[in-house]
Amino acid sequence: MKQVVLITGGTSGIGLSLAEAFMQQGAAVAVCGRSETALKRFSGAHPDALAIKADVTSGEARTAMLQTVAERFGQLDILINNAGSFVKRNFVSDANATQDLEQEVALNLTGPIQLTGEVLNRWPAMTAIVFVTSGYALVSPTRAPTYGAVKAGLHGFAEGLRRQLAPKGTHVLELLPPMVDTPMNANVTEKRCPPRRWRRSLLRH
Q1: C-alpha distances in angstroms, 9 versus 44, 62, 194?
Q2: Is CATH 3.40.50.720 the classification given to domain 4-204?
Q3: Residue 147 annotated in active site
Q4: Half-sphere CA count of 29, side-chain side, radius 13 A
Q5: Which of 32, 112, 150, 158 could form a disulfide linkage to 81, CB 3.0–4.6 angstroms apart?
Q6: 93-129: per-residue pLDDT in tens?
Q7: Of 147, 150, 172, 175, which residue is the catalytic one?
């Protein structure tokens, strides 16, 4: 039986690279995203995969997404929490530095935690749960300190969850990619790594 993989934020960047890698290995893949255009582009390129419009910060959307996966595949084996956003915030020069902070925290931290809990309630015997965090989880970026904070929080959650699920045989993996060439980093001048170069590390595990 094929492994079934769900990747949040799977229509571009790191998520898309992982989706394509799993499909090449014969897995059944579902991705979710918020952009109708990106979802249509993904479906056109990968008609055998399942593309779902869903916002992981919405409880109703998460429930509907998991129901769609269950109806299409009957199971879920691997969850990859990849959706996220990078928001620059300057607490020295910007009086509105905390604008839309709740949305950033929800997308990068609480949404993945809630989705993980809902997935485990529905499919207790998962093969693996993956969190795409960042090297910024360990060293927070000066230009985006809240991004470092939420990724550090997700890093901590992954560590504790790994110990909880170890007796059940569910692998909890964390990816801390370097500066990757994705739309999020389009305006960054530093050297960026192509997504395909490092995704092999996940597939080996």
Answers
A1: 17, 13, 17
A2: yes
A3: yes
A4: 27
A5: 112
A6: 999 999 999 999 999 999 999 999 999 999 999 999 9
A7: 147
